Every structure is written in structure tokens, then in C-alpha cells.
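Progress report, Aim 2. The chain analyzed during this reporting quarter is listed below.
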Amino acid sequence: MRKFLFACLFLISGLQLVQAQTQPWSQRMAKTAMKVWADTSKPHWTYEHAVVWKGLEDVWLQTGDPQYFKYIKSRVDVHLNDDGTIKGYKMDDYNIDNILPGRSVLMLYQVIGGEKYLKAARTLREQLSKQPRVPEGGFWHKKRYPNQMWLDGLYMGEPFYAEYASAFHEDTAFNDIAKQFILMERMSRDSKTGLLYHAWDQSHKERWSNPETGKSPNFWGRAMGWYGMALVDVLDKMPVNHPKRAELLVILNRFATAVAKYQDKPSGLWYQVMDKPNGKGNYLEASASSMFVYALAKGVRQHNLPNYFRGVAEAGYKGIIKKFVEVDANGQVNFNGTVSVAGLGGNPYRDGSYEYYLKEKVVTNDAKGLGAFLQASVEIERIANLNKANNKTVLLDSYFNDERKKDVTGAVVPYHYKWEGRDNNGFSLLGHIFNNYGLETTTLYQAPTAANLKPASVYLIVDPDIPKENPNAKYVEPAHVTAIQNWIKQGGVLLVLHNDTGNAEFKNFNTLMSKFGMPFKENSINHVAGQQFQQGAVKIPAGNPVFKTAKKIYIKEISTFNLSAPAKPVLNHNGEVVVAMAKYGKGTVIAVGDPWFYNEYLDGRKLTPDLENFKAANDLVAWLADQIPAKAAKK
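Predicted C-alpha cells for the chain:
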């Protein structure tokens, strides 16, 4: 019996080890982060923890695993009172570091709502409106560091500023945001190396500043890393037609070129003081290396950097894993090689000399380094399948589905199955998955025509309106049918996520679906009582041509199909066809009688773990990417 029990324990531990080894590094390091920073008894509002929270948010979005969201929420909640005030926070310190945790606050508000999150985010936005500035308009780093701009400060303030401006329609704020990057680069860039000095003193009075230029004396790796991360994060939110966007893209490309130039080619890493690889005591540093990998990989994924930099990022990531990632005797993954801190001025005084940067401690599992590694790891994962449909477009209909409501600002905005929606009924996670496969997500607010469908490789129509949802509901007309048919014949891929009877329009929409042999029945099956999720379970048999990894999914209140040629069933349930597809000309149509892939069913916070909608969404997007003809690439 003892031998049997020992064998069982050995088998279980072996399976656990195999599972751990097959998990991506992002998930393995996330486990360490949640263990190392498990104590909430002494809350301290700090940018360092915010870097980890952002990394864990990225892992959550990449996995649909709710444990990461729950961790972030629990940590943010410790810092907030019920009225939205932030424990230990003092606005009149005007410390720009204190802005960074606001990104997680804002995320929580967008995902779950809550007045306390909104009030906390507004408090931090108010600080930015009052933050002291140099005469040229750049934010001081802190009130106790007058007239100084640090590269670090761009990451501490600007991504939150951009996310807030995007969420609350402060379009003119992007003028100010762009100004911060442009001014900082102009004042800190070295024309010979292309690198950015750590800081700039507008008054030229600090002992560390050059009396003629105000620049600090050295190029600190992590400072450059902060700037690069901030820039790619802000470009995510900056309107594509903003007049300063082009200038920021030029800056990003200059930044990337300089970073690539100073990469240590044998290791793929970067030095603590970037331009002195042979300097006495200089060393390869983990946090800067992670930040550069993140910025370069994300810049490529955004199509804001040439593909050349993908190789630079991937070489850097391999170097990070080899040199800085360590698995201890207990199986815990640790992150080594991060310099604990580096600053300028203060007491004791930090003079910014080469010797100063090399005397600060190098530590294991530092929040800044580990958090940056999490973010870099996810970006490397996200570009793995980028070539599947590189630089092609998925176009989301917002003409047939055009529900609108007033948001908290009083603006009337589109909602319900929209890319920008991060709440339960949004499509932000589905958009995230599309982006992972190289598909850009855009929205069509007009009726489909040959001209506006032409740039798209995938056209997504979801839940066409009925009058109870939208008094100005627009229905499919013969001209729309013709435009969509012809676009599919030429190689377009149509994805339809309809709804059940009573919740969507059928009569007119079926004039389109009948062309492909898949009209909806106008019925409703798979009803679910309350939280009895298993009532909505649909099993996927092995060998399914579309859903290759998901085994059981959740779809409730489904409208099913009457099929005829050329349509074929993809998935059956209780004698009904719940997913169907058709080849039509050079193109493809696939349809489901439920919106199905909105955040509520993908983000892991509601469904039981055995219901694999997140896996199914990945399966579907991978399959869709394979259906796009090569010549359908966007010009």
C-alpha cells in the first residue's frame, strides 16, 4: 500500500511539474508575484506595485483566468476607502509616481463600475491638472524636485493620462500628452548616440545637471525603458488622426534604433549604463532589458515599428530567460538582476555619475523588474502568431447593431458588443484575441458597401437591433446583401454572432443568411435558470474543424439553423445546429445564433473553469485567420 501511495504521489507531483513547465513564463512568474506580494496588512500607494498590477492585468487578458483580476482588485481595494479617497495619498506632494496606480483603478472602473473607483481616478486626474510645470509645459517630476523632468515620469503619468482622456472624451488632452514626450526627447536626447539622458533640469542649477544644457550626465537603462514603455502605451490610446501622432511615431522609431544599437549582441541584453559596456563594474540589467523587449515587441505588434525590431525583442527575451530567470529548489520562479533604485538629487545626494549608478543594490524579485518582465512576456506571447493575418483588418458592424446610451460624462456613445467596451457586454477581450493573430480591429458605422468593405478581411455582424433596443433600428436591405455577397465571393470572411428570437431582428437579416444556405430558425434553445451554467453547456467532440482545443463551452438562448447547400454544420447540440459555415466563392461564412464572445463569457469572472469559452474564442480566431486568402492582405 505504501508503495502504491508513493507511486501516486510521485505521479501527481510529476504531472504538476510537467504542467508548470508547459505554462508560459508569464503565468509562472505571475504565481511568484502573487506569493511575494501577498501581504495586504501594510498598504502603501506606490508605483512599484502598480507595475506588477499592470503585468498581472496583461496576463489576465491573455489567459481569461480570473485569479489575476481578483488579485489586482483585492490590492487596489486595500488602498481605497469606500468614498474613493486613497489611503496615504497627498495630492499636494505633486509626486507624479503616485499617478501610475491609477491605471489599475481606471481598469476596475471600466470593467465592473463602482463610484469609489471613479472618484479615485478623478482625484488622480485632478493632480495632473494642477501638477507644477516647467515654462515649456512639461510636468515636474515631484514638487520637491522643482523644474526637473525625468524619463521615469513619462511612464508614471502619461499612460494613465491617455487612458483617462480616451475613456472620458478629453480629446484635447492628447495635445498635452504629446507635448510631454516631445519636450522630454528634445531636452534629453544625445544626437551622437540617440540615447536619452536620465533627466533634465530646466533651471540648470542642480549639481547633477550640465550647466549649459541642464541634462544629467549618464544614460540609465531603466530610465530609457520607462520612456519607451510609456510611448507605446500612449500610442494605444492616441486617436489615429491626431496631428502629433506622426511626430510621436518618429520619436518611437528613433528610440528603437538607439536601443537596438546598444543591445549587447552576445547576450541580447542591455547594460545598466547603456553606452559603457566595457566600463568598470557595469553589468547587464534585468528591468531595463525587460522594458526594451516590451516596448519593441509592442511597437511591432501595433505596426508602429518595422518588423526588424521583432528580432531584437525576441533575442532580448531569450537573453532575459537565460540570465535572469531562475527556478529554485521549491519550484518557484524568481527574477534576478534588477537594480533596486536610481535617482537624482535628494539626501543623501545622488549626483548621476557613472559610479553612482553602479553602487545601488541589485536584487531578486524587485517589483519594477518582475512587473516589467510580466509585461514583456505577454507581448512576446502576443506576437507569436502575428504572421497568421499580419496587418489585415476585422471590421465590426455598428450599423445594424447601433445601440447608444449616455455615459458618466453625459455623452451619447455606442455600446453593446463594441471593441472599446471593457465591461461585461463589451468585445474588448475578443478584440485582444484578434490582435494576437495580426488582425487590426476597426468599426464600420455606415451601411456596408463595396467601397467600405474592401479594406476588410473579416466582417463581424453581431445582434442586429430591434426597436425595443434602438428606436432607429436599421435592417438589412437588398443593396446590403449584394455588397456583402460580392465581398465574400472575392475572399471576404463573414462572422455572424446573432441572437435568439425576441432579442434580435430575423426577417430582414435572413435574406442575407439564406444566400449561404443558413437562415436562422427564429427559435431559442439552451435556456439557463439563474447561475445553473451547466444548463447552457455544449460539448465539442474531438476533431472539430474549428474548435480544436476547447472541449466544452457555454452558449445560452441560441437561435439555430435550417441548413441547405452550401452550408454545413460545425457544431451540433441536442439535434440542433448551433454553429454553421459555408464556403462561398473565394470566401467563407461562419455563424452562431448568440453573441457568445462578449467579455462576460471570456474573462473568467462568471463561468465555471470547465466552460472553455476563452479557448473557443482563440480557436475561432485562429481558424478565421486561416480562411483569409493571402491576396486579401490590406494594401
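Residues 300 and 307 are 6 Å apart (CA to CA). DSSP finds 20 helices and 17 strands in the chain. These observations will guide the mutagenesis work planned for the next reporting period.
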